[in-house]
Amino acid sequence: MTRNTFLLSLMLLLLLPATNYPQSLSIGFGASLLSVQSPSFYTDGIGLPGYYIVNGIQGSEYNGLNLGREFQLNSLVGYRLQGLPIGLALQVNYTFLRGHGDSYFWDDMIRQNIPTKVTTQLDLLTVALAANCYIIRGDLSPFVTLSAQLNDFSDTRLRHEYSDILVESKNNGGGTRFGLGWGAGTDIRILSRLSLRAFGSYDIQNLGGRNLGEGLMRSLSLGAIFLYNVLN
């Protein structure tokens, strides 16, 4: 599905230049700060071992992953007919979600719980096709945006550290989900071909394709992308 999305977007970018309208084609790279809002298993503190359901998998290891505000890498290819207020953008984002907390590690040898540090990890690869509707055009160009997303979730990893012992367990809840995002931003012209895009968005990463019992993953993000116009 990811390959088909790339091919479709590439065909659009190749066919659109055949029009007689003035056009612009931009590429960009940047970063954003993403804050996970739900489900509670992603946001709750690790705490004591407890019961949970994530991605349809039942477990009894921890109360939550304690995922907070993490950085996201952003890349973008944008296309716009200059006579129209709407621009298209193909976005590829990679999100590194990490959590840390204190809990207990069960030692079978001495038959008791031992305090330990726990690290959690979840990575997310997003391919999105976004439509940006510009309110005005100029050196400062505000817009609103709506995007359809294809999100690839990694397996969730939990690492227990105690002395020289490192145990890693996985929840087999990774896979592809369909999502939706909306937000607003502005393009700030720096040079004739260089601009800075500041944006904010609200995203639901697994609106479609969820497993039974899997909660909606919602997030807020704020970021900036440097755009270089390769076609005027």
**Major sheet: size, sense and barrel closure?**
8 strands, antiparallel, barrel
Q: What count of domains describes the coordinates?
A: 1
Order of helices and strands: HEHEEEEEEEEEEE
- The CATH top-level class label: Mainly Beta
- Span of the ends, CA to CA: 32 Å
- Order of the strands making up the biggest sheet: 1-4-5-6-7-10-11-12
Beta fraction: over 45%
DSSP strand count: 12
Shape: elongated
Report low-confidence residues grouped into runs of 5 or more.
50-60, 163-172
Mean pLDDT figure? 77
Rg calc: 21 Å
Tally of helical runs: 2
Structure description:
- The chain has 232 residues and is mainly beta.
- The chain has one domain: Beta Barrel (Porin), CATH 2.40.160.
- The chain contains two helices and twelve strands; from the N terminus they run H-E-H-E-E-E-E-E-E-E-E-E-E-E.
- The strands form two sheets. An eight-stranded antiparallel β-barrel has the order 1-4-5-6-7-10-11-12. Strands 2-3 form a two-stranded antiparallel ribbon.
- About 9% of the residues have low confidence.
